[in-house]
Design a protein that fits this description.
With 467 residues, the chain is an alpha+beta fold. The protein is built from eleven helices and 19 strands.
Length: 467
């Protein structure tokens, strides 16, 4: 008899630079940000000293590669050096389960439930999202004083960490992929013509991204930058502003579109009500890499029907209300027919099967070349644990992902669990395909045939052969 008492939690999170406090007694000067604020200074210094000791000790064995994690009996600690001398540390409490046997209770720490590759990805994402809005730590220090950097870190991380749902972190955190919506040539050309016309008419619009609900149709920025922007959009900005729209799912399942009543476009960043606005409102600035340089842009997000248009505007351009009014007058009438056409197209392409058994195969696909992913395991993008297979299967997938580098250019893995689930992974040409099947009396030959069938039906035109 037993039950999980506690999920994985953040014990502390801090950012430091050892060069800021080289002398004994100046350790507190090294800490740029520390969470939680309830830990007193002596605890902060003690935790910092432990981390510095681990980093220096491990460097004596492998100077060319920094330590990334430390396993303890009740804790897991992860390290990331995003910029020279700047370290970010995440300490997690291991999940625990209470077991009772012969009236004697005991606590078991579930070390295998906290996977390094998953939470290393979580840790790196905390930095990449910060850099998106504030730029690099080094650049901030070169232009401002240390106090400004600390204030920026506090303003961002105190809010960001409270919103993290790390207990639901899994293999998707490793991928941080983008969901794309493939269209036929005619519909894609209409969108491309609209974007080209928009960017040529307003020279300060340097790049554009076009999303239909939570799916990207077009992006004019680098895939690595779009990866971070996309995660921000679907996890934070869009749910906070258009929750009612997104309740219908990622793609409208029936025609006419359930969103067809929302006829008028509006700005999500900027003036939300153009008729009454006297100021432009809040327009975030984002920092994107272009030609290996970090450049600053205004991020103007416009929502019309089920479409989201992201305009990356030259950071040196001073936006005015007239800019927003002109953009709205131009975009709204042109977007409506385009989005309605997409909704009609999706209604003919997407088939919602009825009475699908729970034991039907579930899969995750990821392409490293364009960062595209598709998942029938995850039922939404909200990281709330809304999944269609056991958590154990997701942990096996993450382990398979971690071991895939040992397989070379291509390879396969098959694992059978004690509850009659089969987990299969296939990697080739920088593509990864993971499948979960529940078949009690299946054998390897039968599972291989089922995987082959899935590849043909779900991944048409994608070839899994060694390069």
């Amino acid at each position: 008899m037993g039950g999980v008492n506690k999920d994985v939690e953040i014990q502390n999170f801090f950012i430091f630079n050892s060069s800021f406090g080289p002398k004994e007694g100046e350790e507190l000067k090294k800490i740029l940000f520390y969470y939680p604020t309830t830990d007193n200074t002596s605890v902060q210094v003690e935790n910092l000293s432990l981390v510095e000791g681990v980093i220096k000790f491990t460097q004596t064995f492998n100077p060319s590669s920094s330590v990334s994690s430390l396993h303890m009996s009740k804790l897991r600690q992860l390290y990331f050096e995003p910029e020279p001398d700047f370290w970010i540390v995440l300490t997690l409490t291991l999940p625990i389960v209470a077991n009772v046997k012969e009236n004697i209770s005991s606590i078991e720490y579930l070390e295998e439930d906290v996977q390094d590759n998953v939470f290393e990805a979580v840790l790196k994402q905390t930095y990449h999202v910060y850099r998106l809005f504030w730029g690099t730590l080094t650049d901030t220090l070169s232009k401002n004083d240390l106090g400004t950097l600390k204030n920026q870190l506090e303003a961002f991380y105190n809010a960001y960490l409270k919103l993290q749902k790390i207990e639901h972190a899994d293999i998707l955190n490793i991928f941080r992929g983008i969901q794309y919506l493939p269209l036929d040539r005619q519909h894609f050309l209409k969108i491309q013509c609209f974007i080209n016309s928009l960017e040529s008419k307003w020279g300060f619009v340097l790049h554009t991204a076009f999303l239909y609900n939570e799916h990207v149709i077009w992006s004019g920025i680098e895939p690595n930058s779009m990866q971070i922007v996309y995660q921000y959009l679907i996890s934070s900005l869009l749910p906070a502003n258009v929750e009612v729209e997104l309740q219908g799912g990622s793609i409208p399942r029936h025609s006419p579109s359930p969103f067809s009543t929302l006829r008028h476009g509006r700005f999500i960043t900027g003036p939300t009500n153009l008729k009454q606005a006297k100021v432009i409102g809040k327009v975030p600035k984002v920092h994107l890499f272009e030609e290996q340089c970090l450049k600053e842009f205004h991020l103007v997000v416009y929502r019309a029907l089920s479409a989201t248009l992201c305009l990356f505007i030259d950071g040196s351009h001073e936006l005015t209300l007239d800019d927003f009014k002109a953009l709205d007058e131009y975009m709204n009438p042109k977007l409506s027919p385009i989005v309605n056409d997409i909704a009609d197209y999706c209604a003919t392409q997407v088939v919602t099967p009825s009475n699908v058994p729970e034991s039907s195969p579930k899969f995750i696909y990821f392409n490293k070349l364009n960062l595209a992913y598709k998942s029938t395991v995850h039922l939404d993008n909200k990281h709330t644990g809304n999944i269609s297979c056991p958590k154990e299967s997701l942990r096996i997938m993450a382990d398979m992902n971690d071991s895939s580098k040992c397989l070379g250019l291509s390879g396969e893995n098959i694992v059978k669990t004690t509850n009659d689930y089969w987990v299969f992974s296939k990697t080739s040409n920088l593509r990864e395909f993971y499948i979960v099947l529940q078949q009690k009396n299946a054998n390897l030959i039968g599972i291989s045939e089922e995987v082959k069938r899935l590849c043909e039906t779900e991944l048409q035109g994608i070839f899994f052969h060694p390069m």
